[in-house]
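Subject: Re: docking follow-up (adenosine-5'-triphosphate)

Dear J.,

Thanks for your patience while I sorted out the input files. As discussed at Tuesday's group meeting, I've set up the holo structure prediction with adenosine-5'-triphosphate included as the bound ligand rather than trying to dock it afterwards. The sequence and the ligand SMILES I used are pasted below, so you can double-check that they match what you have on your end before we go further.
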Amino acid sequence: MIDIIRSEWTKIRSVRSTVWTLAITALLMVGLGALLSGSAASSAEGPIDPVSATRISLNGIMLASMATATLGVLVISSEYRTGGIRTTLMAVPRRLKLLAGKIIVFTAVALAVSMAASLASFLIGQAILDGAALGDPGTVRAVTGTGLYLTACGLFGLALGALIRHTPGAIVSAVALILVLPPLTNGLPGRWGQVVRDHFTSNAGMELPFPSDANQLGPWSGFGVYLAWIAVVLVVAAVLMRRRDA
Amino acid sequence: MTSIRATNLTKRYGRTAAVADLSFAVEPGRVTGFLGPNGAGKSTTMRMLLGLDRPSDGSALVDGKPYQEWKHPLRKVGALLDAKAVHGGRSARNHLLAIAQSNAIPARRVEEVLETVGLREVARRRIGGFSLGMSQRLGIAAALLGDPETVIFDEPVNGLDPDGILWIRTFMRGLAAEGRAVFVSSHLMSEMAQTADHLVVIGKGRLIADTSVREFIGRSSQGYVRVRSPRLPEVAELVRVGELHPDHLRVTAMTPLEIGTLAARAGLPLEELTFVQPSLEAAYMELTKDSLEFSA
Ligand SMILES: Nc1ncnc2c1ncn2[C@@H]1O[C@H](COP(=O)(O)OP(=O)(O)OP(=O)(O)O)[C@@H](O)[C@H]1O
Ligand SMILES: [Mg+2]
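The structure tokens for the complex came back this morning:
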């Protein structure tokens, strides 16, 4: 397994799209965080409470999640696009091992960058806003939760990439599942509507960094539900990957 | 010592069988040419040998085991299927390094194969900008990384200039001379005649011939005797088994001596009496003409 991890690490670090998507992730987090903090600071009447201040400085999370999801998609779909997947599978014919290797390397890379970007945007945002400190209740969870959420979105992308094997298709699905569909569930009526809304992908996942009163899941169970979505797609992708011709 | 063995290998796409009940073996120390017209199923067979496509039926074994069951398959088999199927954004060196690492092949080996195929100078360049010839060399370098006993090349000379073709041909002969099994596909008989020792010929996914090159030429010799004479109709009458063309007679069932003797007895003058050896290409066309997917 260590051989596969080494190989995947060489692959992920040696293409420009990795550097680009990771740079964009960091830039969106830090840039949007600073921008929104700046405008909040200038328009605020009085002091901003720690929870809102934290949230403002981490507001790049929505767009940054699209960057990590894109990188996740590309980790697999770019191999199918170029046909390089055949070279890869000739070297590592055990497909589940290959998938596991990709997941491990991607998770490590995405987690490191997401955590760093989240912490940086918090610190820069608070330098501007002066509203929250890491010692305030819930702040550490919001910052690490943002890093974890961004990483999870990347894994969602990777799972969709493995399932769909086609870059645009997988990216569109990721955008739909993470950004577009979740708010649409707000319109669902009744008790079951509420259950669906609470559990729907990023509605659940965003509970970790930014728990909402409207959602009945807690931060960690919300994130657990989000991971379950990702796991389901990954399992389907893994089963198909074993069965399909390359 | 058989390195690759296909047994009743079959691949169906929907209702049509791209490869049907194909059995053959590839032996070390020689170049085995895998020959068939376009669409015959060569690439599909190779993908099944390499564990990329799942056979609908039958089996493909590498040294007695399915390809997927080897822990470090690249140390057993090196293959080049499609030279352009690589991520263009990587350098040649990183491309090879990633492949080497996956099979626990030391990084030093990357430099060796780059040297072997003559790409050391461009090792740091993005492979997206490589010419077809360079890509082909890169693919061969990747195939050689694990110092494998068996190599598989799918139409390696397609699209190459004469220099490139000669290089690859010499290279494959060299690999076989080192005792490796070389399995190489082509749709051109003329190409294979100069490279291969042994032939596996398929058409429409089925085995047509599994034979040495020499035997193939001999067996399919639709050779004939060409006879010309100022009194051709009379000669034709005399020979009876010939096929009369406007300016000559074509005889397949008799030797020149038999025809000459007959003519001499009857006192007929002969202008020409030649045994015409078929070209390899003609023999191959003859053999596969029934299995062409699209006939002109
Ligand atoms: N994935 C696929 N789905 C459906 N049909 C396929 C698929 N792959 C190959 N075929 C069909 O199987 C047949 C054999 O194709 P294959 O590519 O193996 O032939 P080939 O001998 O390599 O031909 P060529 O000399 O043109 O490379 C063709 O009729 C092809 O259309
Ligand atoms: Mg082919």
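A couple of observations from a first look. The pocket of adenosine-5'-triphosphate (ligand 1) is lined by residues B 13, 18, 36, 38-44, 187 (CB under 6 Å). The two ends of chain A are 21 Å apart (CA to CA).

Let me know if you'd like me to rerun anything.

Best regards,
T.
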